[in-house]
């Protein structure tokens, strides 16, 4: 068994109002970054997981996201990276 | 009728709820701790407002896995009354006892104010004491109260008359200006398909005597008493 560091992005689902993201988009536009089309602000969670393989660690983190870490009604998640911890 | 008020670490409206159902409604009530496994024969369970577990991760997300929630879910599945107010509503959505979710208020600010909501839908257990379309004046106090669900869920809630409270103006008109937190379709409260589980962001327990500024929340508890029995 090895230890893996799995990082996961969780962001508000596209189409749902993200007031925090909208405020940041507006601020960026005010600063002259006219190329910003959309901003969504979510969470970045880093988990150290004991597992037999990287794939098993990711499978476990997906189960954690489905059960607790993300809200299936309002959020999408994506595993950003998995490295040996 | 015996009420059980669940206290989670971070609940802060549990004593208000206790006051409403004992001193104002004249019923018996017990405090239940989040680690309890026994609901002590309570007829009605209330999940009160507050910030359970400091709103870590998402409001209600951690409370959902408290030991007492197994009993709350079993109570709800028996068709018995469960009321979630504010943080309690968030917990009921996280527990999947109610559909949808409560997101950050559209204006990003915590709202602590008096609002108007309109009673509608089909939930005699809770609305029996209100005239259809009656406008209530009631407090809200939340940062994450914007009800959200996908379109098909919203349509189903409306078709089944499970939307029981909507934000409105003083005359009962459903307007964007009256929608304090930007909730989809102005939704302030819903019931489940069995109509025994109620979730609402406004605080009926804080509107049960004139000293508090409104008595419009009291008929909700009186309806329950009349329907579920003394």
Summary, kept brief:
The complex is a heterodimer of chains A (85) and B (230). By secondary structure, chain A is an alpha+beta fold.
Describe the structure.
The complex is a heterodimer of chains A (85) and B (230). In chain A, 33% of the residues lie in helices and 35% in strands. Chain A is of the alpha+beta class. Chain A has one domain: Mth169, Chain: A (2-Layer Sandwich), CATH 3.30.1280. In chain A, strands 2-1-3 form a three-stranded antiparallel beta sheet, covered by helices on one side. Chain A is elongated. The termini of chain A are close together. The mean pLDDT of chain A is 96. Chain B has 230 residues and is of the alpha/beta class. Chain B has one domain (2-228): Rossmann fold, CATH 3.40.50. In chain B, 23% of the residues lie in helices and 25% in strands. Chain B has six helices and eleven strands. Chain B has helices at 14-24, 67-77, 87-94, 124-127, 151-159, 218-228, and strands at residues 2-7, 28-33, 44-47, 82-85, 101-103, 111-119, 135-142, 146-148, 163-168, 187-191, 197-200. Chain B has a nine-stranded mixed beta sheet, with helices on both faces. A two-stranded antiparallel sheet of chain B has the order 5-8. The longest helix of chain B has 11 residues, at 14-24. Chain B starts with a strand and ends with a helix. In chain B, 54% of the residues are buried. The mean pLDDT of chain B is 97.
């Amino acid at each position: 068994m090895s230890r893996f560091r799995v990082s996961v992005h969780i962001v508000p689902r596209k189409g749902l109002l993200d007031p925090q993201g909208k405020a940041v988009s507006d601020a960026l536009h005010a600063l002259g970054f006219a190329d910003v089309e959309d901003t969504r602000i979510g969470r970045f969670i880093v988990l150290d997981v004991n597992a037999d393989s990287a794939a098993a660690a990711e499978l476990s983190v997906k189960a954690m996201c489905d059960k607790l870490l993300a809200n299936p009604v309002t959020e999408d998640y994506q595993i950003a990276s998995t490295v040996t911890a | 009728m015996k009420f059980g008020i669940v206290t989670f670490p971070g609940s802060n409206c549990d004593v208000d709820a206790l006051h409403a159902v004992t001193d104002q409604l004249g019923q018996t009530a017990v405090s239940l701790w989040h680690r309890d496994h026994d609901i002590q024969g309570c007829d009605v369970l209330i999940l009160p407002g507050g910030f359970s577990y400091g709103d870590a991760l998402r409001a209600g997300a951690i409370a959902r896995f408290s030991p007492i929630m197994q009993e709350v879910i079993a109570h709800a599945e028996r068709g018995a009354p469960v009321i979630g107010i504010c943080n309690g509503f968030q917990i009921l959505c996280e527990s999947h006892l109610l559909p949808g979710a409560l997101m950050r208020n559209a204006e990003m600010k915590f709202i602590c104010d008096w609002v108007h909501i309109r009673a509608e839908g089909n939930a005699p257990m809770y609305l029996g004491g209100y005239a259809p379309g009656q406008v209530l004046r009631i407090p809200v106090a939340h940062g994450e109260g914007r009800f959200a669900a996908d379109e098909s869920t919203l349509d189903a809630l409306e078709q089944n008359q499970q939307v029981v409270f909507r934000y409105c103006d003083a005359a009962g008109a459903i307007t964007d200006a009256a929608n304090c937190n930007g909730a989809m379709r102005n939704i302030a409260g819903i019931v489940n398909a069995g109509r025994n589980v109620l979730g609402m962001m406004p605080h009926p327990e804080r509107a049960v005597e004139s000293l508090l500024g409104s008595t419009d929340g009291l008929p909700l508890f009186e309806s329950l008493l009349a329907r579920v029995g003394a």
